[in-house]
Amino acid sequence: MFVRNYIFVFIALLFFSNCKKEILSPHLLSKNQLDLKPSSANSNILYTIHTQTGTLIDIFRDPKSNFLHINTATLGHSVQTHIGTHNSSFTIKNTAGTTYRFTLPELVQRHAVNKKPIKTAITGTISVLQDDIVLFEEGKNNTASGAIYTIKSTSGTSVNIYRTYKIKWKFDQLTRRYKKILYSSIVAVNTKAGIGTGDTPADFLIKTTDGEFRFNSNDIANSYQGNNTLQKSLDGNIVSISLHGVYLYNTVQPIREIKRESPIENSPTCDENLQEKLVYDINTEAYASNPVGSGTFSIKKEAIDGKIVLYQQHAYGPGSSAVDYEIITPEGTFTFNEARFSLAKDEKKATNLTGWVTIKRNGVILFDEKKTILEEIPPLCTADFSRPECPTDSYHSESHTNRKRRGIGSYFYPAAAPSGPPLVLRVKFIGGCLLGFRHLIANTIQTWTQYAHVTFKFLDEASTEDAEIRIMVGDSSDDIGAYSAIGTQALTIPAYHHTMSLPVSHYLSALAGKTPMKAVTRTILHEFGHALGLTHEHQRGDVPFEWNKPFIYSVYETVGLTKDQIDRNLFEVFDGDKSAQYDPNSIMNYAFSPKFFMDCVTRITLNYDLSSGDIDFIGKMYPKPTK
User: Fold this and answer.
1) Strand ranges in 383-422 using DSSP code E only, listed in sequence order
2) DSSP 8-state code for residue 570
């Protein structure tokens, strides 16, 4: 029999990223493993063939001659009946090419005659094959990293068996809370293209505590031509993997894994399509340790309840007793010593902590999860003029004015007649402005005037003339944030108060080469878009995505923003004048990672110039003279 050996390319979409597998130790099918035990404690047994009916066939090395012997250790009447119809052949071979072939019926016959071990002429390092599937290679672990088991053929093709996890979200109307539901699947992934298949396919059976998954070599070939993977939704732990009734992998005491459902306060994040999410890896090679080593410490979060766990991985040395690590959350601190914890490879520790993680090494911060996440979120930019003399958008809400909140079109200035001079909007800096930054702002906003019948008139700081746009830039050390009143909203703000903020610190950072200058000019274009009456493009009523509101609230509230501020900048819908359809390239969009959306796939990237949609719409609201 020949097994078709087509590649499976296992593509994990991420959030998120990259789909992690069930965390188990790799299985080397030998006498040292608990999953396929030898029939006795004989230390010379190299490998034991296990069948589903309980037959055990020991392959061992004679201590005197060093030749391999085969012993049918366990047989019974019903077992013989089953084996008598078995169509697989087995081969033992060494590196020199010497082989010994047999079938299970042949062993049954010999056992019935003399009940003695079968002697072979094979010495040296061996491998054991079932047809062309590799059962055992002496001194080798064929299981790929992260896989539960790897089915390897003589042609080099490997089919990796994984368990994958995915979190799905359900909103409970009764409790008004999101629930995480953990789903799992078994996936078979072929790693190398091959040729041909015989008349008799190789039939594989994967059993779990909740069901079974059958496939054969034809399925593998056909799947390669289709979606590149074989996959079946099954919960529970994998109990066994077998080929024609012979175990390739088997567990002794499978533990039933129950599908868990848990209501949570925090939001879904798009990289939580796995059972555990990696938070941070501590690589001890990066530090001067004496003695050097101890490998990698992995800090992970369980997807369902957010509990933090710690793994010791890839241990190769004793570590340094002078090095202490701290895992710190708002709930407390978990401390461990590099030397003591690294004594047990693949050891796992539960910390019983949840929340944002800070990791320290001898008091020095290695990782700050909160800071890392906050660096990925866009700053909110619409002004929150919340003082009584500076009414905000909320001032115009129904609770204040007994009328519906005004939409997009309500904040545009009356357009100048296309046949006449352009609309003049006066600009003044409050508190002064660095000359270079002033010139950058003035030059950048001319982009708007190319397409809108508008001109910006810059007033001297000492001028007593009123200005519709009054800019505060702060100083070099003050990151005051960028924001603006929306169009005619600025007319309700007292003349002594700014209507826009453009931090000079961002400009100075760009001059120092720390940030790109195009990021500064993009901010200027965006805020002057607000000043012309544009609201955020992502606040249209027809956006083609669903917000991941629990995640967004949890992140922004961490930096002290209120739910009202978050709603105002992200979720509040404007129904006034707007362009024909949502424009993902608009300068008025924020950049959002997939974590912001319930589908865990949508992504909005920054555009650093006006889009064609921006140009068309601003030309419609402030039409220029026709040629």
Assistant:
1) none
2) I
Report whether the peptide linkage leading into residue 291 is cis, meaning its omega lies within 30 degrees of zero: yes
d(C-alpha 138, C-alpha 133), whole Å: 15
d(CA 63, CA 175): 69
CB count within 10 Å of CB 314 equals: 16
In sequence order, which residues have a C-beta less than 8 Å from that of residue 216 and are 6 or more positions away? Answer: 201, 202, 203, 204
Rounded-to-integer distance, Cα 307 and Cα 276, Å: 9
Structure tokens of 216? Answer: 């054969």
Question: d(Cα 497, Cα 94) in Å, to the nearest integer?
Answer: 87
| pTM score, whole prediction | 0.54
Type and span of the H or E element at 361: strand 358-361
> Are the C-beta atoms of residues 364 and 282 closer than 8 Å to each other?
no
> 264: exposed, middle or buried (C-beta count within 10 Å: 0-12, 13-18, 19+)?
middle
Q: What is the mean pLDDT of each run of 10 residues along the chain (627 residues)?
A: 32 30 30 51 78 79 87 58 62 91 77 76 90 86 79 78 72 65 76 48 81 79 59 76 85 40 44 67 64 68 81 69 89 88 71 90 89 79 51 31 37 89 94 91 96 94 90 81 90 91 92 92 95 89 83 81 85 70 88 80 86 92 87
Nearest to 329 by CA among 297, 303, 360: 360
Q: Do residues 82 and 89 make contact, with C-beta atoms less than 8 angstroms apart?
A: no
Matching residue, tokens 């702002």 = 441
| DSSP bridge pairs for 43 | none
CA 507/CA 92 separation, integer angstroms: 72
For the sheet with 56-61, list strands across it.
45-50, 56-61, 68-74, 118-119
Neighbours of 15 (CB within 10 A): 24
Residues 190 and 228: their CA atoms lie apart, in Å, by 8
Q: Where in the chain is the domain with CATH 3.40.390.10?
A: 414-621
Residues 45 and 95: their CA atoms lie apart, in Å, by: 19
Which of 149, 159, 151, 150 lies closest to 10 in space, CA to CA?
159
Q: CATH fold of 414-621, please?
A: Collagenase (Catalytic Domain) (3.40.390)
Q: At what angle do helices 77-84 and 104-114 cross, to 10 degrees?
A: 140
Structure-block tokens of residue 49: 């063939």
Encoded amino acid at 561, one letter: L
Burial (CB count within 10 angstroms: exposed 0-12, middle 13-18, buried 19+), residue 461: exposed
- Residues 148, 27: Cα–Cα separation, whole Å: 7
C-alpha dihedral over 182, 188, 191, 196, to 10 degrees? -160
Which residues 6+ apart lie within 8 Å of 269 measured at CB? 15, 16, 277, 548, 551, 595
DSSP state of 492: G
**Euclidean distance between CA atoms 128 and 166, whole angstroms:** 36
Those residues whose C-beta lies under 8 Å from the C-beta of residue 97, and which sit 6 or more positions away, are none
Which residues, in sequence order, are CB contacts of 64 under 8 Å at separation 6+? none
